[in-house]
Amino acid sequence: MSLCEPPVSPFRPIPRRRLFGFEIDPLSMKQAVAQLRSWVAEDSVRCRFVVTPNVDHAVLLQEHEGLQGAYRDADLVLADGHPLVWASRLLRQKLPERVPGSDLVPRLFDSTNGLGPLKVYLLGAAPGVAERAASNIQKLWPGVKVVGCYSPPLGFEKLPEENEQILWRIADCRPDVLVVGLGAPKQECWVHAHRDQIAAKVALCVGATIDFLANERRRAPRWMQHCGLEWLHRMLSEPRRLVKRYAKDAWVFPQLVLRQMFAPRAG
Ligand code: UDP
Q1: Which of 57, 67, 182 to mutate to test the pocket of ligand 1 (most atoms within 8 A of CB)?
Q2: Comparing C-alpha atoms, which of 229, 213, 249 is closest to residue 136?
Q3: Lowest-confidence region among 5-9, 117-121, 146-150, 190-194
Q4: What is the atom index within ligand 1 of the atom nearest the CA of 182?
Q5: pTM of the model
Q6: Rounded distance, CA 82 to CA 55, Å?
C-alpha cells in the first residue's frame, strides 16, 4: 500500500448480506486486507478463518452440511466470483466488489511493505509445489517469511494421526497466516474441524492459490477475469475435472438467484 493512499478503516461491523442461504461480508479488497492485518497484529487466542465463496460453493452449500457449518462459523466470508457480486446487485444485497482468494493473498503480502515480517505457512498443493511457491514469495515479497510448507497425502483428512502431525508442524512454526489450498469443500471443513488447534492467527481457505504462486497453474488473463470468464479459462485448462461441475453450476445457480428473487420477504 503506498503512503499516499488514504488509510482504510479496518472492518467495521457492516451487516452481512444474506444470499442463497448463507451470509457474505460486504467488504472491498482493501477493507479485507485491513481486517486481516488487524487480526495479525492482535494477540488472539484462537485462529480466525476466512472462506471465499464462488458459484460452485454456493451450489455445493445447498446440500453439504459440513460446508454449511464452516460457512456459519467463518470469521470472514468474501465473494470470490463476479457472478456472486452481480447476483447481489440484482437481489438488492449489494456486495462492493469481488475479493478472490487468489488476489487476497498477494494483496496481503503487498501490505507488508515497511512493516514487520509476516510469517506464513503454506498447506496444500501437490508435493514440491508449495516449496516452489515459497521460493517465489521470498523473491517477490521481502516482508513475508515462509516459515513452513506441507503437502498432505491424499486422504489425509481421514487419518487422525496425520491430522495431528499437521497441527504439530504448524504449531512448531507459529505462523501469522496459514494459507490453505486443499480445494473445496475439503479446506473449509478441515479448517473448521481443527480451528481450535490451529496455531496461526488467521487461516485463509484459498483453493489453487499456492499453485498460482508457484506458477504451476496460470490465472485467466485479466480481461477474462474482468468479464467474469475465469471459470471458462479454468474449465478449458482442466476439462475432464470441471465440465460436469460447471454444467451443474450453470443449471443450479440461476435457480438459486430466481428463488431468492421471488421468495416472500420476511416481516
Ligand atoms: N489439493 C490438495 N490435497 C487434496 C486435494 C486438493 O492439496 O487432498 C490441492 C490441489 O493440489 C490444488 C488445490 O488443492 O492445489 C485445488 O484447488 P482448486 O481451487 O482447483 O480446487 P477446487 O476447489 O476448484 O476443486
Answers
A1: 182
A2: 213
A3: 5-9
A4: 14
A5: 0.93
A6: 9
